[in-house]
Design brief:
Number of strands: 7
CATH architecture of the largest domain: 3-Layer(aba) Sandwich
Radius of gyration: 51 Å
Strand content: 5-15%
Length: about 325
């Protein structure tokens, strides 16, 4: 009996120990599962935050790239517009250059034709003069018809010296253009001509020391440009007169200067006369190097008349001493622009 009881007791103890071990094992597994489940959300949360941070950073970089791209696109469009404008400007300049070349070529051909015609006319005139001498005798002299309105127009070269001051530009300019056209009409053909302002500044600086070709096209170009050609002027013609004589005088050349102005604001009339006398010297026969003509234009009625009187006085003296003619105009103010 005792032995059987002991045997059952051992079995019960073994059974309880085995069950305890099994329960502890299951408990450990469950504890591990619980601990694992608790740690995983923390890891996932950190990973999600890192990914969101990267996404935000990438979005910021994307926005920055887009902004830079828009700026570059605007700059590119602006450069394209600027390039188009420059290309149009180049095209216009090429057109102007082509037109200028055409005008130059036309002027050159006109000059050649005019020179040939002039040579034929001179030859014909000489032949006619010789024939008249043969018919009328050795005492025949051709009538001197080289003066129009008292102004000699037998010069081979003419130079215009124009007062471009504000008083001329604002009051007498249209009248000046008319009178200049009349002077040109009185010289239908010349070997050369030039245009400068009273300070000696050239309308065409590249032609300094050379003559403008005498062609209808060149005359029209000069008159058209004169309509808005107003370089600075001190209303004193002495600089222009001296420049014209020193630059263009040559032995055997018949040159006439035409001074067009309305005022003289220089310090002294006598000093100008002395200066011109030294430059435009007389030869042994008493003939000056060039002739000096002048046209005096009226000033506004409400403007002081003192400087215009000084201009008339100066030019009368210069014209008288240098073989020319002074014409004073007294036109009403209907010629204002």
């Amino acid at each position: 009996m005792k032995r059987s009881r002991l045997g059952r007791r051992d079995v019960e103890v073994f059974s309880l120990s085995f069950l305890d071990a099994i329960c502890c094992g299951f408990g450990a597994v469950i504890l591990l599962l619980v601990l694992t489940e608790v740690g995983e959300p923390v890891v996932f949360e950190k990973t999600r935050e890192e990914l969101e941070g990267r996404v935000l950073k990438l979005q910021e970089e994307l926005f920055e790239i887009r902004g830079t791209s828009e700026v570059l696109n605007r700059e590119l469009k602006a450069r394209r517009v600027q390039l188009s404008e420059e290309q149009q400007k180049i095209a216009r300049l090429r057109g102007d250059l082509s037109a200028a070349k055409g005008q130059f070529e036309s002027s050159r051909k006109d000059a050649e034709v005019a020179n040939e015609i002039e040579g034929r006319l001179v030859s014909a005139q000489q032949d006619l003069t010789e024939e008249m001498k043969r018919l009328l005798g050795a005492q025949y002299r051709r009538r001197d018809d080289s003066a129009i309105g008292g102004v000699p127009v037998d010069s081979e070269y003419i130079i215009f010296i124009i007062d471009t001051s504000g008083s001329m530009a604002n009051y007498a300019w249209p009248l000046m253009l008319r009178k200049m056209q009349e002077v040109l009409d009185a010289h239908p053909t010349v070997k050369g001509w030039q245009v400068m302002n009273d300070e000696g500044g050239y309308m065409y600086p590249s032609y300094r020391g050379r003559w403008l070709p005498d062609t209808p096209g060149q005359r029209k170009l000069v008159l058209d440009r004169l309509r808005d050609w107003f370089p600075f002027s001190n209303s004193s013609p002495v600089e222009g007169i001296v420049e014209a004589i020193r630059t263009y005088y040559g032995t055997g050349r018949r040159i006439s200067l035409y001074v067009l102005g309305d005022e003289f604001t220089g310090p002294s009339v006598d000093s100008v006369v002395r200066t011109v006398d030294m430059v435009n010297r007389e030869d042994k026969s008493g003939r000056r190097r060039v002739r000096i003509h002048a046209i005096g234009f009226p000033v506004r009625p409400d403007a002081p008349q003192y400087t215009s009187i000084r201009f008339a006085t100066l030019m009368r003296i210069l014209c008288d001493r240098n073989g020319g003619t002074f014409v004073g105009l007294n036109e009403p103010g209907t010629y204002r622009r």
